[in-house]
Each structure stands twice: as structure tokens, then as C-alpha cells.
Amino acid sequence: MATKPSIRLTYEDYLDFPDGQRWELIDGEAFMVPSPNERHQRIITELTRQVGNHVKDHDGGRVYVAPFDVVLDAGGDVFQPDLVFIADEDMGVLTEANVWGTPSWAIEWSRR
């Protein structure tokens, strides 16, 4: 579900969205993200376990799962990928609330 704003929405606008719903901004346009199904959750849980164990064993960064904001551009690009990895050398983009800029890598799994 997309809303067609007359103006480009920003990260500040995104912060005012209602709690309890997942939204993403793409080019300043808001999209509601549907809840994941059971298969999706199983796959992401397994990926998180495997990636998390690898990162722990190799002391190489941090792993986060959705919902966790990735703010590519405060002017209108905010995503919540299923899985986000931030390598030690990229920790400068990590804040208490989100990741600013491009994370080391991210996974978004589609149920299609």
C-alpha cells in the first residue's frame, strides 16, 4: 500500500508515523510493509542464527533483524531489511536507533 504525498517525505516525517505498523520510504514515498508469513520467519530465523554464529566466531561486526531502520538518505529513503550486517570497519554508521548510510550488507527476502 503506497501513499502518494504531494511532497517528498523525509526521515523526520517517517518518525511521526503511527507505532505498530511497519513502513518504508522509497524516494520520499511511504509504503506499508506487510507482516511476514511463517515460512519467511523460519528462513530469516535460520539465516540470522547462521550469520550471527559466524560473526560471533570471527568477531567481525554486528547482525540486526527487522524492524531496524536503515536510513540511506534522510531526505526520503528508509528501509527495514530482514537482516542487516555491519562490519567493524563500518560501525561509524551505527546509532542507538538505526543505521545511517549503507550497511556492510543487508538481506531482504521476498515471499513471492
How would you explain this protein's 3D organization?
This protein is an alpha+beta fold. The chain has a domain at 36-107. 23% of the residues lie in helices and 29% in strands. It contains 2 helices and 8 strands. It has helices at 11-15, 38-58, and strands spanning 23-26, 29-32, 61-65, 69-73, 77-79, 83-87, 98-100, 105-107. A 3-stranded antiparallel beta sheet has the order 3-6-8, with helices on one face. A 3-stranded mixed beta sheet has the order 5-4-7, with no helix packed on it. Strands 1-2 form a two-stranded antiparallel ribbon. A hairpin with a 3-residue loop joins strand 4 and strand 5. It is globular.
Summarize this entry quickly.
The protein has 112 residues and is an alpha+beta fold. It has a domain of 72 residues. It contains two helices and eight strands.
What keyword list fits this structure?
112 residues; alpha+beta; single chain; 2 helices; three-stranded antiparallel β-sheet
Question: What topology emerges from the helices and strands here?
Answer:
Blueprint: H1 11-15, E1 23-26, E2 29-32, H2 38-58, E3 61-65, E4 69-73, E5 77-79, E6 83-87, E7 98-100, E8 105-107
Parallel strand pairs: 4-7
Antiparallel strand pairs: 1-2, 3-6, 4-5, 6-8
Fraction in beta strands: 25-35%
Structural class, from helix and strand content? alpha+beta
> Major beta sheet, specifics?
3 strands, antiparallel
- The low-confidence runs, each spanning 5 or more residues with pLDDT under 50, are none
Gyration radius over CA: 15 Å
Tell me the overall shape. Answer: globular
